[in-house]
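Need Sulfotransferase's 3D structure for a figure. Predict it.
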Amino acid sequence: MDEQSSELIDSKSFTYKGCIFSVAHVLERLEQMENYDVRDSDVYVVTYPKSGTVWMQHIMKEIFTDVDLDDSENKASYLQVPWLELKIDSINTDDRPSPRLFVTHLNYDLIPRALKKKKGKVIYIYRNPKDVAVSYYHFRIFAKYMKTPKNFETFLQEFLDGQVDYNGWFDHVKNWYDHRDEFNIMFQSYEEMSKDLRTAVQNMSKFLGKSLDDNRIDQIVKSSTFKNMKANPKSNYEDITSESFDKTVPGFMRKGIIGDWKNYFTVAQSELVDKIFQEKMKGFPLKIIWEQ
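Structure prediction for Sulfotransferase:
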């Protein structure tokens, strides 16, 4: 590794330009990001981890799919909407025909510079940090390539300190929002998607310049419910190798609900997050929904 820009933390993580990454990432790929060749027709869905990324892979695939949803030739969503910063030899990430669709967790500082010149389109999905922390905690247990947390209390402190992959939620969300004028971007709340998916799909389709009739919107909404996605092998990641994940515990699609944090947070922990939120997100205008 380049000693000036990267540093090993332990056997399962390293830093690159101050951002923490798991060993699922390759330094060579991260180094390509700053000068990545962005196309005008590209679409980038940006999320902090555990904020609806798998959900958005499916929705983006369906918005840009002109065939029937039940087409057996339809590829898995993670193949059609791959991770920008991951280098997986079996997945054609870059050399695809336009429009290319991507998902990424990259923070503002590491995103391709061309995107900051309003090239391509960006959809930023944000989710309330309490539910993110709970989902992230369970994912750390599920993913073998990540350090398994001792317990939720220990993990929550690491999460609040930004000592997790992609660093802190607060900085990630705020930095993207504060620099919004540099991008061709729309912001979408995970919770608002959960409460009114149809409107969210309509708004995203309009932003992306896709004219979809009511029937197609209805199809996408139906296929994108948690129940239907969990039963769909092309959307639920069930075919991912067990070498990387502990298939004995819930993984990519665990609950997908609003307010699960109430089952894990103590009153003191909840109040601590509220305090930090008020300090770090002062004046943040986007609505955060904490419970159903």
